[in-house]
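Sequence, please.
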């Protein structure tokens, strides 16, 4: 049986896996991200693939990466959270392993996984918002995945939520991800509670501590504001929330829906837009990266 090696390169970790033709993740591991070092990033992936080749017949390497990428050339163009720029990761992986490598934005890969195996199956107009270190996005409109004229489309995290707001690594001010990404949640909480070090910590404490719960509600309000903007621009059937923060499950989803239900704008025009959690979870990026090889992974879309 043929398999695809997959890597999901984020701002904090690199998720690595082996995917079967049916979309089953048969092996996986996670390593720390090599922030600022493209060569080391490629080396970590190649090392995993080298070990996996002893057990599986691997036909290619699919890579999902945060930020702007050149899919055709396999180049990470600008991954601000990773501090990696203009790095030809596909070429580096092929040189290291002898296998073909393909690259796509992580959110596009995650949406591909949801379309094939998860909560977007059967939909023609759907958006994915990934809540990770920052905020990523992907769009599938009129039955096609859309990435814009240069492949930089759906960078939802860089919509301006607050004019003149916080400085973003992209060069803008007030970007949505500075208020509704995982790092933003930790930053908000740590101002009042210095012991807060992770989004998971904040979420768990918010369930029992009224002061942390207030921070959580402020976060949800900003998340909901961004989602409302996406509804007004794209009028999708659904918006799917993925990324690490989606692991909060109903605590996140119910909170977002509660805030959106308070909006007369949403009730009047977009009440039929479903807000859902991704079903492929933290494996979505890897599954979608593997599906960059549709000749191996059944039904690949991208």
């Amino acid at each position: 049986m043929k398999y695809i090696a997959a890597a999901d390169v984020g701002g904090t970790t690199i998720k690595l896996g082996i995917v079967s033709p049916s979309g089953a993740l048969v092996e996986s591991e996670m390593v720390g991200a090599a922030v600022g070092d493209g060569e080391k990033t490629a080396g970590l992936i190649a090392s995993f693939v080298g070990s996996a080749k002893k057990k599986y017949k691997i036909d290619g390497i699919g890579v999902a990466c945060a930020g702007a990428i050149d899919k055709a050339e396999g180049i990470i163009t600008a991954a601000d959270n990773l501090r990696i720029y203009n790095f030809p990761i596909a070429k580096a992986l092929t040189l290291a392993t002898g296998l073909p490598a393909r690259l796509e934005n992580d959110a596009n890969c995650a949406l591909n996984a949801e379309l094939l195996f998860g909560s977007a199956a059967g939909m023609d107009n759907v958006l994915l918002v990934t809540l990770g270190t920052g905020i990523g996005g992907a769009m599938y409109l009129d039955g096609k995945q859309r990435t814009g004229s240069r492949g930089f489309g759906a960078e939802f995290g860089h919509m301006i939520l607050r004019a003149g707001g916080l400085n973003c690594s992209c060069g803008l001010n007030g970007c949505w991800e500075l208020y509704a990404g995982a790092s933003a949640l930790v930053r908000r909480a740590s101002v009042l509670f210095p012991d807060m070090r992770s989004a998971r910590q904040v979420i768990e404490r918010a369930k029992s501590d009224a002061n942390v719960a207030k921070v959580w509600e402020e976060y949800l309000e900003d998340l909901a504001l961004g989602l409302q903007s996406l509804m007004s621009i794209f009028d999708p059937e659904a918006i799917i929330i993925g990324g690490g923060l989606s692991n909060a499950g109903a605590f996140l989803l119910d909170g977002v829906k509660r805030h959106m239900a308070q909006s007369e704008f949403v009730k009047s025009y977009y009440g039929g837009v479903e807000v859902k959690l991704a079903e492929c979870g933290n494996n979505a990026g890897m599954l979608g990266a593997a599906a960059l090889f549709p000749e191996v992974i059944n039904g690949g879309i991208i």
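The chain has two domains: 2-109+282-290, 123-278.
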